[in-house]
Amino acid sequence: MSQIFNPSTNTIARLSILVGGLVTLLLLAGLYIRDQSVYTRPVGIAVEQPVRFSHELHSGQLNIGCLYCHGTATQSSYGGIPDTHTCMSCHSQIATYSELLEPVRQSYEDNTSLVWNRVHDLADHVYFNHSAHVNNGVGCESCHGNVEEMPLVWRAEHMTMGWCLDCHRNPEEFVRPADEVYTFGYETPENQTELGFQLIEEYGINVDHLMSCGVCHY
Asked: Are 172 and 196 in contact (CB under 8 A)?
């Protein structure tokens, strides 16, 4: 009985397996590079806004506290963006003729909201609660970076799942005293681990619950 396949078929089959493996590796490498690229996770790239609001000026130089503009951060999952009335509580008297603030004045007069561009935009399947973090010793700059040095806000961290889990696995290395949550340039004390465990007990943090999938994924 004659052979159905030519002997060279074995070589072709081996080459096909090798090429298929290489293509798979290249695809996986490409997906990883894309996931870590500045196009997917634009870390360190300032986001243009309808008004060039400078945290460097307001938070850094003028020492305006985080909660003055982001008042819901301690009360809800959403950190909050100030409405125009909050802006005008100062700017009805300060820099009243600045061209940069014309969109703010127009928004106030028309009673229409300014549309800000999101900087920290998590995936739809991720749930993040600001109040749960702020009220339990997680500093603003731990996620947002030192905004006091940002003329325009940019993402300071990749905010990947692994990055979040670093804190959830070892919260004692990250939690702060309540009066340091809004401090920028906070220096971790030498006894952070010991202090962290004390704060975990003080805040009543359920460490085991932090590793539950349902904490971040409903």
From this structure: yes
Closest to 137 (Cα-Cα) out of 192, 78, 216, 212: 192
Tokens for 137, please give them: 């010793």
Residues 6+ apart with CB under 8 A from 45: 38, 154, 155
**Tokens in use for 18?**
């090798």
The Cα diameter of the chain in Å comes to 99
Cβ atoms of residues 77 and 127 within 8 Å: yes
The domain locations on the chain are 1-36, 55-81+116-215
CB-hemisphere CA count at 13 Å for 211? Answer: 6
| Rounded CA separation 124/210 (Å) | 20
Coarse DSSP helix, strand, coil percentages of the chain, rounded to the nearest 5 percent: 50, 0, 50
Other CB atoms within 10 A of residue 51 CB: 15
H-state helical runs in the chain: 8-36, 55, 66-69, 84-91, 102-110, 130-134, 140-144, 161-169, 192-203
Which pLDDT belongs to residue 110?
A: 94
pLDDT score recorded for residue 2: 59
Per-block mean pLDDT, blocks of 10 residues, the chain (218 long): 64 80 83 63 87 95 94 92 92 92 95 92 91 96 95 92 94 97 95 97 95 91
Phi, psi angle pair for 155, to nearest 5°: -75, 130
